[in-house]
# Entry
Amino acid sequence: MDQSTGVETCLFLVVFLEIHYKRHINSI
# Structure
């Protein structure tokens, strides 16, 4: 496993959580 793959996965999770968190706030 390359470090770049880990970074991409980490960024993907951060973006996914950020979008989900914002949508959750907007839904309230």
Observations:
- DSSP finds one helix and no strands in the chain.
- The helical segments are 3-27.
- The chain has a mean pLDDT of 83.
